[in-house]
Amino acid sequence: MVLELKNLRKTYPGTVAVTDLSVRFEGGKVHAIVGKNGSGKSTAIKMVAGAVMPDRGSISLDDRPLHLGSTFDAIHQGIATVYQELSLFPDLSVAENICFHELPHRGVRVDWAATRRRALDVLRELDLEVDPDTRVDSLSVGWQQLVEISKAINHDLKVLILDEPTSALSKDEVDQLFRVVRRIRDRGVIVLYISHRLQELPAIADTVTVLRDGDLVGRRTMTETTLAQIVSMMFGDVEHVRMTPTIPEQAEVALEVRNLTRKPWFEDISFSLRAGEILGIAGMLGSGRTELLRSIFGADSFDSGTVLVSGKPIRRPTPARLKLYGLAYTPENRKTQGLIQIQTVQENLTLAGKQSLSRRGVRNRTLERAAAMQQVNDLSIKISSLDTVVETLSGGNQQKVVVGNWLNDHPRVVLFDEPSRGIDVDAKQQIFRIIWRLSDDGIASIIVSTELEELLEVCHRILVLRDGTLQQEIVPGTVSVEALYNACIGVAQ
Amino acid sequence: AEEADKPYQIAGIIFQNDQFFQVIQEGMRAAAADYGVELVLGNSDNDPQQEIELVNTYTVRGVDAIVISPLSETASVQALQQAYSDGIAVVLYNSPLAADFPVSYLNSSQTQLGSSTGAAAADFVESLDGDTIRVAVLAFDSLLPEISDARVSGFIDTLRASTNKRVEIVSRQDGWLSEMALQTAGDILTANPDIDLIYAANEGGTVGSVQAVRNAGLAGQVKVFGIDATAQLAGFLLDDDDVLQAVTGQQPFIIGYDAVEAAVRHLNGESVEKTVIVPGVLLERQDPAGIQEWLADR
Amino acid sequence: MKRPRLEQYLMELILLALCVVFALTAPGFMRTRNLLNVMRNVALQGMIAFSMTAVIISGEIDLSVGSAVAFAGVIMAWLTQWFTSFGLPLAVGIPIAVILTLVASSVVGWTIAYMRNAFSVPTFITSLAYLTMLSGFANLITGGFPITSFPRWFNTLGGGSFLSVPVPALFLIVVFAAFEFIMNHTSFGRSIYAVGGNAEAARLNGINVKRVKYVLLSLTGCLAGVTGILVASQIMAGTPTVGRGWELQIISAVIIGGASLAGGAGRIRGTLIGIFFLGVIINGMTLLNISQYWQLVVRGALILIAILINNLRGLTGATRT
Amino acid sequence: MKRPRLEQYLMELILLALCVVFALTAPGFMRTRNLLNVMRNVALQGMIAFSMTAVIISGEIDLSVGSAVAFAGVIMAWLTQWFTSFGLPLAVGIPIAVILTLVASSVVGWTIAYMRNAFSVPTFITSLAYLTMLSGFANLITGGFPITSFPRWFNTLGGGSFLSVPVPALFLIVVFAAFEFIMNHTSFGRSIYAVGGNAEAARLNGINVKRVKYVLLSLTGCLAGVTGILVASQIMAGTPTVGRGWELQIISAVIIGGASLAGGAGRIRGTLIGIFFLGVIINGMTLLNISQYWQLVVRGALILIAILINNLRGLTGATRT
Ligand SMILES: Nc1ncnc2c1ncn2[C@@H]1O[C@H](COP(=O)(O)OP(=O)(O)OP(=O)(O)O)[C@@H](O)[C@H]1O
Ligand SMILES: Nc1ncnc2c1ncn2[C@@H]1O[C@H](COP(=O)(O)OP(=O)(O)OP(=O)(O)O)[C@@H](O)[C@H]1O
Ligand SMILES: [Mg+2]
Ligand SMILES: [Mg+2]
If you measure CA to CA, which chain A residue comes closest to D187? Predict the structure, then answer.
């Protein structure tokens, strides 16, 4: 089986997303597609999925041209897609979501028992333990991602497209996913796989295709290339900055958490954070990291315990109050929690800091513009203008807007929940550099990340959260990634 | 009434929350008190469907008589027919029904109300120069077309009949609530500042027209003639700004009272008149004493 | 699916409590005739309410239904009159008039979806414009006066009974069963939930979102047509004043039933409870001879209280933003 | 911001075209008196419409405004009567009555927000319940009769002019300027857009979402109160029948002005155009003495056409779901 894209082009007002893409993908292989944020990866695969109509060019499967007028056509020609932004139905059950395309019928009637059974089969095949009757919106992002993948696998597949499927998964879920993907590949299916986690590629990809600014840079066989080569194909040269781990010895305590408990998510969490310190929190999917950050920020209530900022206990915490105390929080789900999709980049970059950008409540648009511009430059956000609507940005660029927004509020403590979700290597380095710069200025950070390497690279100190309790404190440099991973899953050394 | 000494139960149905029907209800209550009958009151809110629901509900409740102002001469027949065949006496007031089972029909003839004001206007018209009279009409055609039309044609026909001058209707619009009529009358006055008089077919329309003439600074030039008598309108008639000239009021209290009385008498086996016209009262600017007397009677 | 049964049926319990109160206080409330009456009364708005539930679940709304009822009744009466004037026997003319009326009503609903699908005009606006336009047309056709062109037997449709159940109530049962089935047991029904829950995801999942809207809005138009014909049969006339204000009452029933205006959530069974809730309140208060003004206050308050109780348990779709 | 100017002002152009048509056909349309008249007419619904725009941008809705207008007028007249019965001079009684009326109206609005914030009852439902309840209260207070307790001079407020500009129009201008400033130039205005665009994101950005709703709904209640007092002054009575159906007209104006019912998008300037658009249509058709029934049809059609033209250029927020 061969999927062939010929001279594909897609433009949006003000942007050429894909310039002129011609490439062939053979069956029985996993084809990685990489490129920096906004390089056109998602747009390219959306054309294959029938979600976006190319301006010109053609797509064919086994030399048979595909006429993809809609996603319906694609799905029924055996092309299944897991999109970068989740496309589940929040009000429906896991089972119904998984079987959505082909609900089992008896006559015209949907056979709910069979639906549940089929969903259970799929879930079992993927080793996923989740109740098929759960409503999807009660699951965390990571679990939703797994459901999304289960849904795609439910087909008589020819082409499977995965757009950053692992960005919200932790290591063992990734392994699980890879097992499934390999199984599917071995059936002869063409797998297209987009990811920014380059270190995953050797484990899963057979070929790697690199895009830059909507153009094909090249295609390599995975075994005949190195990550360094791929990175330089993507960016030219990326300079990897190493941190100078210096926290002023006597720095005051910026944030202290005492006996914080919110059942069933976490229990009796205590730690303190000094000014300028970068603290990582490691843990598996569902270990309660997101809930912990949200409770510290006042976004969720908690059962007992105290949060102290600069030594002062916060009474009746709300995000508004903690913001006043100098806290910032970048949420893990940019689409539903981080951004106002219908507003412009400028509005989104200046929302958290709007108070400081106004005088006595009256806006100063010049200040706003300057502040937004600064983040766009600092974070290399790829936009045609500050008035671009955030909705139309690529996933990674949206993530940068979420981070930039909070930096404009000049916080003293920043809580980052998965800050590097879906952003390219280069942008990740930029965000880390910014975290370090903040640290030099005495601003403390807490980073939750599923990518343990990243935590080891950035943090001064890492706390391991397991089953809602703090297990261990780790100082990077003294341990390997494997050791940290084992600590997370609770395996003794 | 199953048992002999149980009081009669009479349902009174109105179709709108306005002053006219309020007073009718008061009349009904007074009659009910005088005759010792139990009165239940309902309002169909101008919705034919809701009228049916009310009639059905009362039928089931087992009232002895329904006293109603039907929403439509034709469309209201069906439900009342059903009530009638269940042995309930139907008494009509205010608006007619195309059926012969009702015991009695008490109304002020809608046409006559218009005529009465029309006759009063005729006197005024004679005092004008020129031989074309320009008239604007505020009606309620999209609310109750039948009644609205009767009141308007009563006025116009009488006016035309009693003068040799040409009566030109320069505008006919809907406006039955004060604030709605105020806007519409304001607009009409702008389009036709040379009109001689405005005729408004109900209370809200009359209040709105008077205020519009005042707002436009045309007091003394454009006269208003109306229908319905209320304390506010009586006040306007007594005002010295010469805007409102005459209104013909129905006598809703009497209509309500007599309607219930008719029902009771019918239930008692006495004979009642098939049609009773309760005459309207004309209140005129020229007759302040009459207005004072009417106010005192209330 | 795993909720304790009692909590899931809270709204039903509230309705039951209300009925018990009325049974104890309102004269004649429990009489069979009265209960059948309530059924007849709620049947008309009820049919539209089911369809409206589906529309609201799909994330749209239709404010034109009240006027559409008037429009359909008037068209029906006018066509009957017209056919009669040609000497067509009524037994032939009326069925044809029914079919033409339903077609016209469905087409009106379809155009609301067309404006949505082809020009992105929100259904709220189109149907709001239709609310005035259809009422205008109904008035123009009749000249404001009811058209009374129906033969006596035509009354059976809206006023008759079958095995002592009012005919409109039979319609209600059939429409209820149909919608209950469609929404819960067919893929089309599931795609309605999907479209309302996340229209973009629905599109990416290969659902023909536009088709869903065409079908639902045409269906709502058609049911408003059916209702218009039933009302015309009840009052034996085509009158432009019927149906005024129904849109808000119907939407109230849908929301009391737990549907969310944001789309994606709602149940047909909930709406059934909603319409009976409203119908019973009105019937009970009328039987109790509560003053018109207090009725307005009490009705509003009861709606609020019901939703509050329901929300406090966090059970209704209405809690979604 | 970078759009060609002409396209951005399309709705304004449509309004202008409408005015030109009426200027050529409708007698007296261009007379200063008539234009001032139009201003007086649109002023009343206009003030509420601006506040409603903010409410809709914040993702909520208030269906109770029509009844709130009646309620305020009745309270005002009743308080005046009551004070007078104590022998309080009107020059003192009326200002106190005004203040109390505005406080009461604001509190009513506040409670709608309270139900939303404390119990997650959608504003759609609470305000729908209030629509009946407030109307019921207004009737209970008056017993159905207009209360005519005002002295002659009180008419100046709603009926008078200042430098030949109708007083209500002055109110309109002030309220317009205030909202235009708040929405575009204050941090609070940004919060409103943010809350409507994505309430959860707004909350996580440290915006007090509940406070935004309290403020906006209280303000809407207050402006409905102001309008109620002005109407009472115009008709020199507190009457429970005023304001009926205003809610849908006001929402029409807001949506014609380009606001999205989904929240997050809309402009105060757009709403100004929206209310003038509706006001001019009604005025022009009345001047032309077009039949009531045709007016209904034409009004609906013009609204649709305007939105269509606007949408075809893909310029209005109204295109969003
Ligand atoms: N609907 C749209 N309207 C306008 N521009 C768009 C739209 N969708 C994508 N773009 C633009 O097209 C370009 C390519 O976007 P795309 O989503 O394909 O990037 P990507 O390679 O997937 O990036 P990422 O790694 O960040 O997900 C970006 O500049 C983006 O802003
Ligand atoms: N076995 C499970 N079945 C279903 N859901 C689960 C399971 N385990 C965890 N979850 C989901 O995981 C979430 C708790 O994880 P939380 O978000 O607090 O932690 P996290 O470490 O930040 O995880 P994530 O990486 O998903 O953000 C809950 O919403 C819960 O629904
Ligand atoms: Mg992408
Ligand atoms: Mg998390």
Answer: A361
Residue D318 has pLDDT above 50, yes or no: no
pLDDT tens per residue across span A472-488: 888 888 888 888 888 88
The helix/strand/coil state of D165 is strand
Query: Has residue D188 got a pLDDT over 90?
Result: yes
Ligand 3 center–CA A44 separation, angstroms:
9
- How far is residue D118 CA from its own chain's centroid? 26
- Cα–Cα nearest to D71, from D213, D217, D235, D231: D231
Q: Is residue A208 located within the same domain as residue A285?
A: no
**Secondary structure of residue A344 in the 3-state scheme:** strand
Q: What was the pLDDT predicted at C316?
A: 40
Which ranges of chain B have pLDDT less than 50? 1-3
Same domain, A74 and A12: yes
Say whether both A154 and A36 belong to one domain.
Answer: yes
* A230 and A277 belong to one structural domain: no
Q: Is residue A67 part of a domain?
A: yes
CA distance B71 to B79: 12
Q: How many helices (H) and strands (E) does chain B have?
A: 10, 12
How many A from CA of A382 to the centre of ligand 3? 13
The answer, for A91 touching chain C at a CB cutoff of 8 Å, is yes
Give one DSSP letter per residue of B274-293, joined into a string: SEEE---EEEETT-HHHHHH
Cβ <8 Å between B179 and D231: yes
Question: Taking the model in full, what pTM does it have?
Answer: 0.87
ipTM of the complex: 0.84
Nearest alpha carbon, ligand 1 atom 18: A40
Residue type, D136: G
Range of the domain at A313: 253-489
Report which secondary-structure segment, H or E, holds A278.
strand A278-283
Residue D114 near residue C274 (C-beta atoms within 8 A): no
Residues A26 and A118 in one domain: yes
Chain B positions touching D28 (Cβ under 8 A) are 190-193
Q: Do A11 and A140 share a structural domain? A: yes
The b-or-e profile of D53-68 (16+ CB within 10 A means b, else e) is: bbbbbbbbbbbbbbbb
Which residues, by Cβ under 5 Å, contact ligand 4, an ion? A 290, 332
> In chain D, which residue's Cα lies nearest the Cα of B182?
D235
| Option in C34, C237, C243 nearest B60 (CB) | C34
Does one domain contain both A325 and A452?
yes
DSSP classification of residue A314: P
A112: closest chain C residue by CA? C185
pLDDT tens for each residue of B161-171: 988 899 999 99
* Total tally of structural domains belonging to chain A: 2
What does the pLDDT look like over D272-304, one tens digit per residue?
999 999 999 988 998 888 888 898 899 899 888
User: Contacts of residue D206 in chain A, CB cutoff 8 Å?
Assistant: 319-320, 322-324, 352
* Lookup: tokens for D135: 């109307």
The answer to whether residue D42 scores a pLDDT higher than 50 is yes
| Phi, psi angles (nearest 5°) of residue A193 | -135, 110
Q: Which of A137-151, A383-397, C174-188, C275-289 has the highest mean pLDDT?
A: C174-188
Res D316: pLDDT = 40
> Do A98 and A209 belong to one domain?
yes
CATH of the domain at A119: 3.40.50.300
Mutant choice from D157, D286, D288 vs B, greatest count of B C-beta within 10 A: D286
D228 touches chain B (CB under 8 A): no
Chains A and B touch (3+ CB pairs under 8 A): no
- What is the distance between the alpha carbons of residues C278 and C264, in angstroms, rounded to a whole number? 24
How far is Cα D310 from Cα D304, in angstroms, rounded to an integer?
10
Residue A415 has pLDDT above 60, yes or no: yes
Separation CA D17–CA A191 (nearest Å): 57
CA–CA min distance D227, chain C (Å): 22
Compute, in angstroms, the gap from residue A42 CA to the centroid of ligand 1: 7
